[in-house]
Predict the structure.
Amino acid sequence: MNILIHPDPVALGATAGSEAARLIKDAIANNGRAHIILATGTSQFETLRQLMSDKEVAWDKVIMFHLDEYIGLSDQHPASFRKYLRERFLEKVPALRAAHLINGEGDAAAECERLGMMISAHPIDVALVGIGENGHLAFNDPPADFDTQQPYIVVRLDDQCVAQQFGEGWFKSLEEVPREAISMSIRQIMKSRNIICSVPDERKAKAVHDCLDRTVSNLRPASILQRHPNCTIYLDKASASQLKRNT
């Protein structure tokens, strides 16, 4: 695991997005296609913007999966991650070879099985992720399941996660935030050949310290990234403000 600290979120996103583009182009050059995972949320704004600005990425050779989606939320709701990806990514790049979005409106167990079968056939080259205010990775809130082999699982959101989603402005009230979601599992994320983790903002500083300075624990889910051989954490000065690890 490598840690890079930048002066602000724009610089963070420029570096992280450029590296993501490079890795995607390398995968296409070596294998004829690239398989990627995209995260959502405010932490990904600048990274995605930079990634999409690279005109040399052959998007028609890219297969995309995404990390998580609320259960029971319409894809027209402002907080829907399907809506986020369609508006902020899929509509802005040439047609991908395939985009596998999570549908949380039907049978959640069946959706986990459907997605699990697909992603198992497509080893991931590049995963773009973030770290939540509670240290979660995707919607794997503490204590996260570090053992399940299922690629996608149904999870329950803890109170801190619910407060973050409301605080970021996606919902009109705490009560409106769904309490369950479909999430990519920890083990599935860790199978990715390369992980780019973008974490801007001072409100993430404690989680960054807990997950990167302290030992690996399912009480600090993103701490598992310490064990990934090709993971780079992109921070800005604010999110790195409590970090003690040498970088």
Observations:
- The chain has one domain: 2-236.
